[in-house]
Specification:
The complex is a heterodimer of chains A (201) and B (198).
Chain A lengths: L5 H11 L10 H6 L4 H24 L9 H23 L1 H7 L10 H9 L6 H31 L1 E2 L2 E2 L14 H18 L6
Antiparallel strand pairs in A: 1-2
Helix pairs in contact in A: 1-7, 3-4, 3-6, 3-7, 4-5, 4-6, 6-7
Chain B lengths: L7 H9 L12 H7 L3 H30 L8 H23 L1 H7 L3 H5 L2 H12 L4 H29 L11 H15 L10
Classes of the chains: A mainly alpha (201), B mainly alpha (198).
């Protein structure tokens, strides 16, 4: 198998193989935390950190891990990084930690991370694995921010908590509630698949 | 936060309808999108989720309050919960493989999927955050499972019909499933007036 350059890995993770649009992974948190841009950015940063470093660690340990128990090892590596993130959030941003609630812990079961460890990091040297994890984390964060942008703008009339819509703007309460998360993400995937169809392998 | 006087029945009912774990908390979306193509497989996965979710929420409650809290290890709850869930799923798989080939053919393929189903871990994390008691926790786990199954089976039924519908090319697959789920979430919101708590 040819190794991709760092630039190719980045563009794959961000766009052509974007984990959310293309592979439909990590949808749970993509829907749950996208009603406010602030929460979404923190979640994005947390996920980028965990994906990049779990990929790196899995790759470093790839020759020492018996393949029968590799899933368990991967889960434990991911869970350790999530604990680091959770403790950091609790210490420095207690409010956001409360707002994100269980979704920080749920990064462990976010299929993007497992997917990258299993699909890429397991068979590749540390540096490309790190870049690949980083790229997929960025791709995820980018889609989340796009969804959150629409939801916060229409739902609260604000961006990052700052009012941008005129006073007369009627807030679309539905946008901050559960159904709109499905609608917005569904529409985004529709647009992406219509204008940039997936290349057939 | 949860009130100690809220009866387990109310929690059960709320978990199924008003705060459906899938349509309101978005837990378990990955397997929801992947498996909901038809009613049969949805039912199989649904039953597996109910069973595992009920038992692991009870187990994790006991582990958290009787092991992690006394020894001041609450920060390790993520690792411990996921190990409890994985070990339980593995155990169930081995037991039914040995004693009930019928159940194994029905549920077997779904069990490995369950370890990474975020709904299971999510329920365990929610019951800690909401300070549920043991009985409330088990009721929440069971209700969450039933609600999850209700949503995935309904979606399986809808997607079977959608197979013959003229859907725009780009919307096929995940796109239309997400939008359908949005409509389902909208209709489930109608229940929310029935119980004053979230």
């Amino acid at each position: 198998m040819m190794r991709d350059s760092s630039a190719t890995l980045l563009s794959k993770g961000l766009w052509s193989d974007n984990p959310v649009f293309r592979q439909i992974l990590g949808i749970c948190s993509a829907l749950a935390v996208t009603n406010l841009l602030v929460n979404t950015s923190i979640m994005g940063v947390a996920l980028i950190f965990v994906t990049a470093f779990s990929s790196l660690t899995v790759s470093l340990l790839r020759n020492a891990t018996p393949s029968r128990i590799r899933m368990m090892v991967q889960v434990l590596i991911i869970a350790s990084y999530v604990i680091v993130v959770d403790m950091a959030l609790k210490a420095y941003m207690p409010e956001i930690s409360r707002a994100l609630g269980p979704y920080v812990g749920l990064i462990i079961t976010n299929c993007i991370i497992m997917g990258r460890c299993e699909g890429y990091a397991r068979n590749n040297p540390p540096w490309p694995a790190f870049v690949d994890g980083l790229a997929n984390g960025l791709g995820y964060a980018f889609v989340l921010l796009a969804v959150a942008f629409v939801r916060e703008l229409l739902g609260f009339g604000s961006l990052f908590g700052v009012k941008v819509m005129p006073e007369s703007f009627t807030q679309w309460t539905i946008m901050v509630m559960a159904p709109a998360a499905f609608f917005v993400l569904g529409t985004f995937i529709w647009i992406a698949n219509t204008y940039w169809p997936k290349k057939e392998k | 936060m949860a009130h100690p006087e809220v009866s387990a029945f109310v929690i059960l009912f709320a978990a199924i309808f008003t705060s459906n774990i899938l349509l309101v908390n978005f837990l378990g979306m990955c397997s929801f999108l992947a498996v909901s193509r038809e009613v049969r497989s949805s039912l199989g996965l649904g039953f597996a989720v109910i069973f595992v979710m009920t038992v692991t929420s009870g187990l994790n409650y006991l582990v958290y309050y009787h092991i992690l809290v006394p020894y001041n290890l609450v920060h390790f709850r993520f690792i411990v919960f996921i190990i409890v869930i994985a070990a339980f799923v593995q155990l169930v798989e081995m037991v039914i493989e040995r004693y009930s080939p019928f159940l194994y053919t029905v549920l077997g393929v779904f069990l490995p999927l369950i370890t990474v189903n975020c709904a299971i871990l999510g329920v365990s994390l929610f019951l800690i955050i909401r300070n549920y008691s043991f009985v409330q926790s088990v009721a929440y786990g069971f209700g969450g499972g039933v609600g999850w199954m209700l949503a995935i089976v309904a979606m399986g039924g809808i997607r079977e019909k959608l197979k013959n519908a003229p859907i725009p090319k780009g919307l096929e697959g995940p796109g239309i499933t997400l939008i359908t789920a949005g409509l389902m979430a909208l209709s489930f919101m109608a229940f929310s007036g029935m119980i004053p708590m979230q």
